[in-house]
Amino acid sequence: MPPRIATTKPGPPPPGQLKIIGEKCLAFVLENATPSDPKSVLEAIDTFGYEHHWMMNVGDVKGELLDREIVKVKPKILAELGGLFGYSAVRFASQMRELSGSSIHVYSFEISPDFAAITTKMVEFAGLSDLVTIFVGTFGDNYFKLKELGVDHVDVFFLDHDKKCYKSDLKIIEQSGLLGPGSVVMADNVVAALITDYLEYVRGHTNFTSVMYDSYLEYSDIKDALEVSTYVE
Fold it and tell me: Which Pfam families has this protein been placed in (predicted)?
């Protein structure tokens, strides 16, 4: 069992409410966290998720699984598909900086301009603006910008966006030319959201070796898992 569960029920909020929740979360962080202290920012978001309103960012429990993979891979370049309010960007960038210094970079692709604006403020408050770039739009429409910035290889991809798009976006990642031997694709919510088409595709792929790590849906006792797939040629 997870150590804690949220006081509010997990699940997507009513239409139009997610932006309001994000703004409240940001205000809570600005009031309770320490500027330029990523750990305190993450702790404040987790506290908000547990005590004020359930949040759909990866959270502290599954976050430890992400941390373990980052330590293992030691990525210099990471791309996340789905930024929401900046929790994962802050978590990734801060840990990658600890491991590899300021030469690392996180690229976050978020389709909502409102969510991207909140992420920008969250990352800025955490003191990580120089290590995180946020693109508004889909990965498919914007990955060429990475190549314009001189990025020809991504060490880690993190999928945590529209669950219906995991499989199609993995195919776009393959076509992008940004995968290389040892590149890792981490996919969140593969059990809680029943993303079977993605799992069947990546596990049956001759160029990926995959492992599933059991966990819990963020801030809840609902079973979930993280699928970690390593690209091999």
Answer: Methyltransf_24 (PF13578)
Domain 17-231, what architecture? 3-Layer(aba) Sandwich (3.40)
> The whole model's pTM is what?
0.95
pLDDT value for 15: 73
User: Catalytic site residue 188?
Assistant: yes
- 46 catalytic? Reply is no
Distances, alpha carbon 35 to alpha carbons 21, 44, 88, in Å:
21, 12, 17
CA gap 101, 139 in Å, rounded: 26
Strand order in the sheet with 184-187: 132-136, 105-110, 77-81, 156-159, 184-187, 223-231, 208-216
Q: Annotated catalytic, 24?
A: no
231 neighbors 183 (Cβ within 8 angstroms): yes
Interval 4-61: pLDDT, tens: 887 887 877 887 899 999 999 999 999 999 999 999 999 999 999 999 999 999 999 9
Q: Give the active site residue among 60, 189, 224, 227.
A: 189
Cα angle 155, 157, 163; round to 5: 170
Q: Which of 163, 169, 224, 227 is catalytic?
A: 163
